[in-house]
Amino acid sequence: MTIHADTPPVSSATGRPLTKRGQETRRRLLEAAEQVFADLGYHEASIVKITEHAGVALGTFYLYFDSKQSIFEALVIDLNSRVRHSMSEAMAGATNRIEAEGLGFEGFFRFTAEHPALYRVVREAEFVSPATLKLHYERIVDGYRAGLDAAQRDGEIAAELDTEVVAWALMGAGELIGMRYLLWERDAEGRPPAKIDPAVLAGMSGFIARALRPDTTEGTDR
Amino acid sequence: MTIHADTPPVSSATGRPLTKRGQETRRRLLEAAEQVFADLGYHEASIVKITEHAGVALGTFYLYFDSKQSIFEALVIDLNSRVRHSMSEAMAGATNRIEAEGLGFEGFFRFTAEHPALYRVVREAEFVSPATLKLHYERIVDGYRAGLDAAQRDGEIAAELDTEVVAWALMGAGELIGMRYLLWERDAEGRPPAKIDPAVLAGMSGFIARALRPDTTEGTDR
């Protein structure tokens, strides 16, 4: 399996970069795949169902992807870059790292509420394409860790924290909070919530702020 | 689906409690199921493969379980009670809640190293039996939360923490740390580690201790 991620998509048939119209068709196929994989699961999903859902001819599919496996992997990569985008967009307004963490989670939860497929697709990736699953987690953690390292250098978070371990811990915390309070939650009409309960977000942000904040004796000579 | 958990196992054929020998056969079947589901996944696994692996006649299976789905659910429940046992056993020596948290994770990681099937089975449960998956998480969280609530009453952890949210966050943190540093880790010979890297455990315990510890101004009148 080769993953060309964060590089412009190319045609699987010609190997050349896609035109603007080609990119739109590829996007339509990915959106259809998100729906079909989430509704049916990997085994029941098929290329025919994806192209039907996308309103695209079956033959056209192969200009973009080689197989069901390859569109599945492309979908994980695509959801991954979009969830990271949603997180960094949310973090942009922060004035320090601890605030940024809280906002990053808000971005993650917002994306999860809009794309409940994220969880199902990522969990199936464990069986369908373990390497892509790994990539998904590693990319989020790498981003996290870089932010934590920078904050540590600036004295914004405690010096003693192991930023790699903390990055994995925070990602896991976010994942299960999202599962419990978004995917499992239903309102009186049985609908999933449009956004996470602000009290839960506050509880989560408070927990993270406590864990990350520098000791009061740290950085006093700054 | 009916889940009779934490009650003595009964024969699926007679509805009566199992004899000691019956319990041993049931245990053999569950151990075989753990191996078979972990190696092959739910779809490829079969009752025949499980009974062959257990060295038990096919007909005997139905004295204990009704179907592949029912032994899968029983396995999740069984792994769940064993991982919780491993955690509480590890916590028994703690002198306070923050130390207990660190030891509880050690118990969780020890069980994960010995039963790598836990992760695969739990993740497949999302697709095979969502209600059992929910039960698995909720039982761990309920135990956690009860401990955190008691510690909060005793002033051992910060009063402001939302113990329910924290319990979900901690479980998620433990899950991904276990995935990254046990399931994905390989030594020079390509073998999974027998136990978690002590530095990772220390990083995790330190992170949790920081998040939970009471503010220095708290409890000074105690």
UniProtKB/TrEMBL annotation, chains A, B:
Region of interest called Disordered, as start-end residue ranges on this chain: 1-22
Name assigned to this protein: Transcriptional regulator, TetR family
A family per Pfam: TetR_N
Family matches, as InterPro entries: DNA-bd_HTH_TetR-type_CS (IPR023772), Homeodomain-like_sf (IPR009057), HTH-type_TetR-like_transc_reg (IPR050109), HTH_TetR (IPR001647), Tet_transcr_reg_TetR-rel_C_sf (IPR036271)
SUPFAM superfamilies referenced in this protein's UniProt entry, alphabetically: Homeodomain-like (SSF46689), Tetracyclin repressor-like, C-terminal domain (SSF48498)
Keywords on record: DNA-binding, Transcription, Transcription regulation
Domain of life: Bacteria
GO molecular function, one term: transcription cis-regulatory region binding
PANTHER family: HTH-TYPE TRANSCRIPTIONAL REGULATOR BETI (PTHR30055:SF234), HTH-TYPE TRANSCRIPTIONAL REGULATOR RUTR (PTHR30055)
Annotated DNA-binding residue span(s): 46-65
Organism: Microbacterium esteraromaticum
Domain HTH tetR-type: 23-83
